[in-house]
Amino acid sequence: MKPDWIQCDCKGHAGYTSWPTAIGTPSPGIVKDALRIHRDVTRELGIKLGCTTRGLGQSGGGGVSRVGSGGGGRQPQPHMTCRRSAYDEVLMIPQMLELVHEYDVDGFWVDGENWASAPCWCERCRNEFRRRSGLDGVPMTAGSRTGSTGSPSTGICSPNT
Ligand SMILES: [Zn+2]
Predict the structure, then answer these.
(1) CA proximity to 105, closest of 33, 7, 2
(2) d(CA 73, ligand 1 centre) in Å
(3) Are residues 114 and 47 in the same domain?
(4) Which of 22-31, 41-50, 68-77 has the lowest mean pLDDT?
(5) Residue 75: other Cβ atoms inside 10 A
(6) What SS3 class is residue 131?
(7) Number of domains the chain is built from
(8) pLDDT digits over 53-81, tens only?
(9) Which run of H or E residues covers position 37?
């Protein structure tokens, strides 16, 4: 049997990497670089090496976590990232480039994007909503027509009506 691919789990939802990354947070307890071993062996056998990594659905810290509406109160969502944060530029893309440069991986499976995509109510996102809509208030729940300032807004989908 000769598989087309070998795939290694490279980063989980908690944000730990399975390789000794210089950019993020390696999993505690790494004693040997298993990804290096997989790369060396797959190269020797002529088998492609892929990496499974989490994209948007990852614990962040450093202000990259999504803030949910929490049904009116804003709650941090530590396992999801805010799309307006620097997560992509300071962590996700640099880590993927590290895997390309250091291990010459042949591909990625970026997992969990469907369930990790959700609205965010952090300061950055609320400011962007105000900028794009021209409204002062930001609806705090789906279907809400009242902005966070208490002033009436005209809704998320039709801000000018
Ligand atoms: Zn946000």
Answers:
(1) 7
(2) 15
(3) yes
(4) 68-77
(5) 12
(6) helix
(7) 2
(8) 987 777 655 677 777 765 544 566 777 88
(9) helix 34-45
Q: Compute the distance from residue 124 Cα to the ligand 1 centre, in Å.
A: 5
Which tens digits make up the pLDDT trace of 113-138? 777 777 888 889 989 999 999 998 88
Rounded Cα distance between 31 and 49, Å, is 21
Asked if the structure places residue 159 within a domain, the reply is: no
Kindly state whether residues 19 and 57 are assigned to the same domain: yes
Domain residues for 96? Answer: 5-120
Question: Distance from the CA of 64 to the center of ligand 1, in angstroms?
Answer: 8
**Residue 100 Cα to ligand 1 middle (Å):** 29
150 and 108 together in one domain: no
**Which tokens belong to 67?**
């803030």
How far from chain centre, in Å, is Cα 24? 13
Give residue 117 CA to ligand 1 midpoint distance, Å.
Answer: 11
- Residue that is written with structure tokens 């000018």 in the block: 160
Distance 127 CA to ligand 1 centre (A): 9
- The 3-state DSSP class for residue 17 equals strand
How far, CA to CA in Å, does 144 sit from each of 76, 120, 153, 155? 20, 15, 9, 7
